[in-house]
Amino acid sequence: MLDSPFPIARVRATYPALSDGYAYLDGAAGTQTPQSVIDAISAAYRTGIGNVGGAFPASHRSDAIVAAARAAVADLVGGHPDGVILGPNMTTLTYRLSRALVGPGDEVVLSRLDHDANVRPWTQTGATVRWADVDPVTGELPVEQYAELINERTKLVAVTAASNVLGTRPDVAAITELAHRAGALTYVDGVHATPHGPVDVRELGADFYATSAYKWSGPHIGAVVADPALLETVRTDKLASSVDTVPERFETGTAPFADLAGVTAAVDHLAAMATDPGQGTRRERLLASMAAAERHELELFGVLLAGLETMPHVTLYGKPARRTATVYFTVAGRTPRQVAEHLAGLAVNVWNGHNYAWELTAALGIRDSGSAVRAGLVHYNDRSDVDRLLEGVASLH
């Protein structure tokens, strides 16, 4: 095992799914769930819940669950609970907000580094699109180009906080500063970034920050975090009979209350991974715990990357200076799907294909040939997972 202060054995023991003997290196597409989250969801159903706003205890319990979930997400990313919009997933919420924020006649700046969920909703509004390009060799998103792309006509700049296939962490704060100087709003996709280290939406300069709980050990719930005062200025389509308060005006239909209980449990789990309950507020514990998890992931990733770099039959894509523990590669003489199937036969889970990095895989010139294989580390992965992947890829030579 690597010499790390992160209590990996204790953390792994909290995830029942890891007992099946597989190496779960597919976390970039969704993480496994700890027992505490499973218990929280089950308890919500066992106790009895009703729709919100009622006069009876089951409804009051749902009111409390929703409020707790907003507070938990706010603590995770450094936002305010009244600015946490909850929904089924990031894609749905982004489509909803894109229609409220921009339209024909507006100008938006998008990046080819992004997941398509932070691209297509904006291109389909009828707004004029200006593109920020990726360096296809390094996988970096150069900040300098934004000075030319952003102007007085720019309504919004959408950018990822981390690439979901290359792991690239662009200089989001520098990009959002340029946007704000021009009076533009910023929409930051934090889906891939949030599970891999501490997040502060204010430091990033994100007017809107999107995240998905199922990427950080929670259920399939999405959230967008913004300043409540900003949300008061935004109008979106809603039922005439539904409430018009913020953030509820952006949430359609009845919420999955039991899953929202799981969101709070997931945040509490993250806060407790590498800290003790008495070490400060939940926000403080989250910052410390996620920093420890990031160090653990990057130490393991150093081993993974070094191992793949020694294999002549492996081609790696991107070499960004700052990244999450995510690698994208191909193997000579094998399609990405064949590599994934070979590894699955060795009880190693990885993904193959474009993984919704539609613009990026086209820029890399690999989208039409099956793209590549993606392996990603999260906090519950250990050295044995890495070794098994390396052995499996080496055996394809």
UniProtKB/TrEMBL annotation:
Stretches assigned to the Aminotransferase class V domain: 24-389
Superkingdom of origin: Bacteria
Pfam families: Aminotran_5
Protein name: Cysteine desulfurase family protein, VC1184 subfamily
